Amino acid sequence: MALSITTSSIRKHRPSLPPVGGGTITLSDFSRDRVLFDSGAARGLNMAGVPLSGTATAGAAVQTRAVTETGTPVTGWTTVATAAADGTWAGAITPGRNAAWLRPQVRLAAAPTVTATTVNRFGVGHVWALWGQSELVGILTTNVATGETLAAPDMVQVLGPSLTPSQVRHVTADAPIGTSVTALANALHEIAPGDKFALVFHAVAGAGVDELFDDANAARLWANEVALHQLATADGQSVGLASMSWFADPRSQGPTYGEVMHRLMFGRTVAGTPITFPATMPGGYQAAWTASHYWGELYDYAHTRWLPYGPHRFDITQDMRNALLKRADGLADQAIGAIPIIRASWRTAVAASAEPALLPLGIEPLSYLNGYASGSTWTDTPHPGNQSIHGAPRWARYTALALAQGWPISPCRSSTSPHGRRMARISRSGRAPGRSPRRAG
């Protein structure tokens, strides 16, 4: 069943104070408390457009500002609208990133004591989307025995269909989600102390892009992803950064991987030819298939940037005869052999693309642990390990680093920052503790 969300029932007016000097004003509340707006960091900006609306005396000039929970102003009073004849008004406030939760205040310019505010709070930081399958689900669900302590509560919120009891969870010490999410939140705090993050996890285990975009394939419903996106943007937010290291199931695209992903992102071929959807996608190692949708239906590329990173770590699944990916029985290991092929395809496509919304390739996260010990064998090698801090929690940290590298002013881009130096040392080590390094792809 497709998920759904409406905001008509939750956008309510907070009554103004009793009129003093004439006039009235109301301000529509946000759809939930602690909504987050993207500040445009992926475009090198530090400003969010926060839509506001309400009612006021017809013809009255409406002014607004943002204040912290303690009432400290973070923007000055600015005239943003004039109430229409029917009394409605709409405008926007444009604060920058702030470690505090904020509330908007509005007033009548001609009667400054006639004011209104909201019950719910908002923040300005980063709204980033992550697309993929079980590797990302593991970040939300893995809880190893010993993990990190959360360094900065309520600076990160995660949204995703696998979360309970709510699809929106704030990462706090009294409501932990798991050790991998804690590691992710700590890494983001180290990279950008004082910044708030909303991470939208578009992740379904075992489902590839053909299941996602083909309406005739019920394995993964596009409508569910639309509903999650609407939840994340219900108050007029934009997604600042969309990202993926999605190579497991889509490896069946083989040498067509880069072309297919580019078409699904932008509705154009790598060469720039527009595509009309529904559209036939080349199949690579599988049959050609139909894409009913593309990501451009969700994202406005005046605001959103795409960050491709990876491939992440892929391990061989059985004993190998040699470095040419021949199994011990002499047959080719096609599953692992496809990874360097789609890696090369993706790099070729990104290098050839002229899309301004496509950022340079990010890191290839490799130095974490896949699988776990089960008796005398090592099992579940396709997934970051769910029984060690060196598995899914470390994968979560590398995911944070990959996302931050899509931020033009990120301290991760500087080898002189403490986090940059530390992550550089980890990257140079080339291994996850407890296992010999195996570089796949």
Describe this structure in words.
The structure is a single chain. The chain has eight helices and 19 strands. It is an alpha/beta fold. The chain folds into two domains: 13-120, Sandwich (Immunoglobulin-like); 124-429, no CATH class. It is globular and about 85 Å long.
Key features of this structure:
441 residues; Immunoglobulin-like; alpha/beta; 4-stranded antiparallel β-sheet; 7-stranded mixed β-sheet; 2 domains
In short:
With 441 residues, the protein is α/β, with parallel strands linked by helices. The protein is 21% helix and 23% strand. The strands form five sheets. Strands 3, 10, 11, 12, 13, 14 and 17 form a seven-stranded mixed beta sheet that branches.
Strand content: 15-25%
How many separate helices? 8
Low-confidence stretches: 1-20, 414-441
**Sheet with the most strands, sense and barrel status:** 7 strands, mixed
Say how many strands there are.
Answer: 19
Q: How many domain regions?
A: 2
Order of helices and strands: EEEEEEEEEEHEEHEHHEHEEEHEEHH
Helix content: 10-25%
How far apart are the termini?
37 Å
Structural class computed from helices and strand pairing: alpha/beta
Radius of gyration: 24 Å
Mean pLDDT: 87
Shape: globular
What secondary-structure arrangement, pairings included, does this model have?
Blueprint: E1 13-14, E2 25-28, E3 35-38, E4 50-56, E5 61-68, E6 78-82, E7 88-93, E8 102-108, E9 111-117, E10 122-132, H1 134-141, E11 156-159, E12 168-170, H2 179-191, E13 197-203, H3 209-213, H4 222-232, E14 241-244, H5 257-266, E15 279-281, E16 289-291, E17 305-308, H6 334-352, E18 370-374, E19 377-384, H7 392-404, H8 418-429
Parallel strand pairs: 3-10, 10-13, 10-14, 11-13, 14-17
Antiparallel strand pairs: 1-2, 2-4, 4-7, 5-6, 5-8, 8-9, 11-12, 15-16, 18-19
Helix pairs in contact: 1-2, 1-7, 2-7, 5-6
